[in-house]
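Sanity check

After download, print the first record. It should look like this:
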Amino acid sequence: EGKQFSKSRNWAVWVPDFLNNYSADSLRYYLTSNGPETMDADFVWDNYRSRNNSELVGNYGNFLHRVLDFVYKKFEGKIPKRGPLDKSDNDFLKSCENVFKRAGNDIEQGKFRSALKEIFGLAEQGNRYLQDKAPWQAIKSNREKAETSLNVCLQVILNLRILTSPFLPFSSAKLKAFFNLKNSSDSWEFQEITKDLTFSEAPVPLYEQIEKEKIAQEIEKLYHKNNSNSQ
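Expected structure tokens:
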């Protein structure tokens, strides 16, 4: 909150308390995307909430859940067939392959924030692709086209599970279980989707929105502890 962390003054965010109320991956995401690499960084509760809601939930989580929920409802959790690919299909898949190299190079150089940005850029592209293909409309008039675009999305999601694993290991593990991938490889490389892939259960959102009121309570609690300790 714009001040220096101080254990003696109780001006801190205590991890055990944090994990009782928020997900570990949301903290990992915020600390990586906002964390210090070449200079100091600041933990701001409102900023944490904003980035969780807009980036983790609104971007990455939104892309995953829209695809998984639609496939579960319309295809009973089975992988739709892939037909002929058009330019946008190929471009999306090529982008996914390229992220392994770019993000991998960033990780090797300790540029974790840049790597995470590359990966979440792929999720942004996924939301644009999904909006453009609109399989919920295409399925009414051209089922093959809808199936192909959903297959492409699932292919990318399968690889996003691997790409996000260094940063969001808990949700990555949930995706692995969701796709019944117990014995699959987790090596850092593009993986092809298989037709026998199935969902283990109904999909649920991986991340939750954080309300303003909850963050206001955290800030109030922080100041209360600080003032009590000063007295």
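If your output differs, re-run the checksum step. Summary of this record's structure: The mean pLDDT is 92.
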